[in-house]
Amino acid sequence: MRALKILVVVMGVMLVFGFAALIAVIAGRVSRGGPPTTVARGFAAPPIDIPRGARIEAMTAGADRLILDLMLPEGERQLVIIDLVKGVRLGTIELRPVP
Q1: Mind listing the pLDDT tens digit for each residue in 3-60?
Q2: DSSP, residue by residue, 14-80
Q3: What residue spans define the domains of the chain?
Q4: How many CB atoms sit inside 10 A of residue 80's CB?
Q5: Tens digit of pLDDT for each residue in 48-89?
Q6: Would you state the torsion angle of the CA atoms of residues 69, 73, 75, 77, taken in this order, to the nearest 10 degrees?
């Protein structure tokens, strides 16, 4: 019976200290003004080449992709897919009308 009383007292003390530590952490975060701000880094990616004389007709952005709809000088269309994470061109899709 004595061991049970000691165990209950030790567990009670641990509970009180754990609760005090939790309150201290919360108070520390509140006093700092919220989550830490992130430093803005410059974005450096290689240039994306498009054909000379081409116009960007439309852009569509997905979660990590950018799709450019290009109108080429000859009247043809082209889709350019760009990876937004790496900033590189993934590929090109030629669009041709059906005769």
Answers
A1: 999 999 999 999 999 999 999 998 888 887 655 566 666 667 788 888 899 999 999 9
A2: HHHHHHHHHHHHHHHHHHTTSSPPPPPPP---PPPP--TT-EEEEEEE-SSEEEEEEE-TTS-EEEE
A3: 1-37, 40-99
A4: 21
A5: 888 899 999 999 998 889 999 999 998 889 999 999 888 889
A6: -20
